[in-house]
Amino acid sequence: MSLLPELDENKTIENTKRFFEKEFPTLQNMAHVVYVDIKSPVISGMPVSHSADNGVETKVTLHAYAKDILGKVVKACGGLDHKHRQILELRYFKKLTWYEIEDLTGYSRSHENDILNEAFLQFAWAFVDVDDLRVFKR
């Protein structure tokens, strides 16, 4: 008997993919970040706003929140092995096409997809303290 329920890998992959395709770009926009290097755990060079205006205060709060979550994404990616981190970085951080990734890595498209799905699973476990993207079978 296992202590943990069985992970539903397909649903966990779906959740993590949705995070990287929908939420991640939104966080990048909110943080005013076009590209974050996941090799560096420090996100620097961000514009800082100083104002007492309420609308601006909300923007600054959202900006700080987004920067914080992006920092946690970077930290979680740091826990992935090189091959999986590289595919995530090239696809979602650098926004390269699958053809460009294939040229850089030499992996076939189907192999890239397998690596990306494994990366999604590794990320889901590494990111659990921030947002639990895992789905367990009942």
From TrEMBL:
Q: Which residues form a coiled coil?
A: none
Q: Which domain of life is it from?
A: Bacteria
Xref: SUPFAM superfamilies: Sigma3 and sigma4 domains of RNA polymerase sigma factors (SSF88659)
Listed transmembrane segments? none
Instruction: Tell me the NCBIfam families matching this sequence.
Output: phage_arpU (TIGR01637)
Q: Under what name is this protein listed?
A: RNA polymerase subunit sigma-70
Q: Which organism is it from?
A: Pediococcus stilesii
